[in-house]
Amino acid sequence: MADMFANLAVWFHDVFVKQLDAWVILGFIAQACFSMRFVLQWIASERAKRSVVPVAFWFFSLFGGALLLIYAIQRKDPVFIAGQGMGLLIYVRNLWLIANEKKAVTKVD
User: Fold this and answer.
1) Which UniProt keywords apply (predicted)?
2) Which phi-psi region, left, alpha or beta, contains residue 85 (left: φ > 0; alpha: ψ -120 to 50)?
3) What residues make up the domain containing 66?
């Protein structure tokens, strides 16, 4: 049992301490930005007492996703690159649709 804990401690040190550099810090910041969209959506939905996706959700998605894509490119992770790249297209498209909807409402008024 002591060996298992020692091995786990070595693994944590190798993963979270030895590899700590500016890129890992950027990755954590990017992941925090990306995760904030869920917190924001949860708070907005709780306040409205229904499911709500605020515009800021898409901006956090775009900003966090772009930073994660940069991180994934630097790490040369093809799965992460493809996933974040496709996500960015969806986030931009949603923001585009929201902007068009606001323009249409403004023209009617």
Assistant:
1) Membrane, Transmembrane, Transmembrane helix
2) alpha
3) 25-108
